[in-house]
Amino acid sequence: MRPDLLKMKEVALIYLDRSGGLQKFVDDCKRYNDSKQSYAVYRFIISVNPSDIAELDVALGNQILHKPMKAVQIFQSVSEFVCLQRQKYIQHFKPDFSLQNHFIFELQVCFIAIKTLSLIEQLQTEAQINIVLKPTHLPPLPSYVLSLCEFPLDYISQRFYMSEGIVIAMGTVVKYTQGARFLCSEETCPFSEGFNYIRVHIPGATESATVRNDFVCSLCASPLQEDMKFRVLGDKQLVEMIDAKALSAFQGYSNNKPHFRIQSFTVFLRDELSNKMKIGNRYRFIGIPACIQNCSQVTVCIEVNSIQLCSPEARGIRHPASSDIFPTVSKDKHGTGTASIQACSALLAKGGICFIGDLLSQKKDKLELLQSVLESRTTTVFIPGKKYGDVDQQVILPIQTSFWTFVDEDSSSKKYVQKDDTLIGKLDLRSISTNLIDAFGLLIHCNELSCQLVLPLLDHIMKKAIDPEEVPYTISQQFRTQDYEEVPLYFVWLQMQCFHLTSLMKTLCSKEMFI
Q1: Residues 6 or more apart in contact with residue 84 via CB below 8 angstroms
Q2: Measured between alpha carbons, how far is 358 from 371 in angstroms, rounded to an integer?
Q3: Does the CA dihedral 425-430-431-436 come out positive or negative?
Q4: Which of 214, 236, 237, 210 lies closest to 225 in space, CA to CA?
Q5: CB 285 within 8 A of CB 162
Q6: 152: preceding bond cis by omega (within 30 degrees)
Q7: What angle separates helix 3-19 from helix 21-35, to the nearest 10 degrees?
């Protein structure tokens, strides 16, 4: 064995022992062994801190960061060594890893392997061990930040990158093949039994790459057949994300461009990461990018390894009149035939404000749905199983958004509605139910004279929408005459702070506004 490779295996075992990963690995082995069930592969998650490993051995740290597939093989070999040990020896025997004589170290390993029993009795080959390395972080350097503008020209190796984005669509959880066992179809061939041919999913691989029917035996060239009773399945979920900067296209800044396209990217969530993302949230994650070809189209995807929720942020979305306010369902664009829930304006404005425009321009069914959401603060998405190849599903999504709208006096027919409020009574609101109007928390009447005067009130409402827990005023404050004299100056300052809101309000003059 190459001395450098043996050194990295030694360091990997030292790190596992010091970090507690060794004991976790032993516990996972016990769980598999207690099940008394044979699997094609046994999956283990190992958390690694690249900085700590680099301090022990730079070469192994470099492998983890830049060649994770080779690093997996190193930990796979070490894990096989651990699986050959009885638990009590792992707990009580501490080999002298400080020895520089690799031959002595190999003798120690062989001695323990001979003298002890297996932790997983069903395990037969090293190929059955499926190691998933999860780095705790990556170096805070530009070369570790994924730029889809450069991929795949400058990224020729499958390694870990950092990226972040906002979830705009999410598919349902489906099954995928973690690992499978193949046997030679020729009964006289030695490989017609045992675990000589094991297929394991690797990042970026499709289902057809893991299991298909064109494998042949390397010994006799006979076709291989999968032993279906040993197939190991896991959970998989496809998520569509966009860069946070793309939200500007939903904020009215692109109105002068009638046609624009927002480029999303696909991430894969597998097993323990399934359902860990929510539509509308912003996430920072570590993953391995890959190109997946679907017919004639090549798609850049990212196999997510770890997820971190970003801090909440204030957002403002200007709802396009031609699209849906609330989530809809469509078929997954990757050809899987599964359902994908699209975020739409309400969820993209999560934690902020969704401006839906003229209320009278909305159709009756849309207004009824809006009323239901305002009253319950949830929306339900129905996924028909007949259309998407599954059972019927109902997904309930929370709506954490403030809705702003208006009614244009000029476009109203000026027919009065019998209401107690004389202000609302000046408009033709027959197409809008009383319950919907009452569902809004505040009504503001704006005209050319009062448009500027309501800005401080709107500033207050926006602050409360962004941070409801913040106390904007202190009741015990004592005001002097000078304070009252300075109030107009303060309102001027407020107007400067709300210049974005000012441009919006100018378009809403002579309109009734609901908040």
Answers
A1: 112, 113, 116, 118, 119
A2: 15
A3: positive
A4: 214
A5: yes
A6: yes
A7: 90
Three-state secondary structure along 16-73? Answer: HHHHCHHHHHHHHHHHHHHHCCCCCCEEEEEEECHHHHHHHCHHHHHHHHHCHHHHHH
Residue whose structure tokens are 């009253």: 375
pLDDT one-digit tens code per residue, 451-468 = 555 566 667 666 666 666
Q: Compute the distance between CA of residue 438 and CA of residue 435 in angstroms, rounded to an integer.
A: 5
Q: What is the pLDDT of residues 217-243, one digit of tens each?
A: 999 999 999 999 889 999 999 999 988
Residue from 381, 357, 358, 379 nearest 368 by CA: 379
Q: How would you classify the pairing of strands 353-358 and 316-318?
A: parallel
Tell me the whole-structure pTM to 2 decimals.
0.76
3-state SS class at 356: strand
Is residue 41 within 8 A of residue 179, CB to CB? The reply is yes
The answer to whether residues 514 and 442 touch, using CB atoms and an 8 Å cutoff, is yes
Task: Provide the token pair at 243.
Answer: 């860069």
Comparing CA positions, the residue from 498, 505, 328, 322 lying closest to residue 404 is 505
Distance CA 46, CA 69 (A): 14
384, 335 Cβ separation under 8 angstroms: no
Phi then psi for residue 488, to 5 deg, are: -55, -40
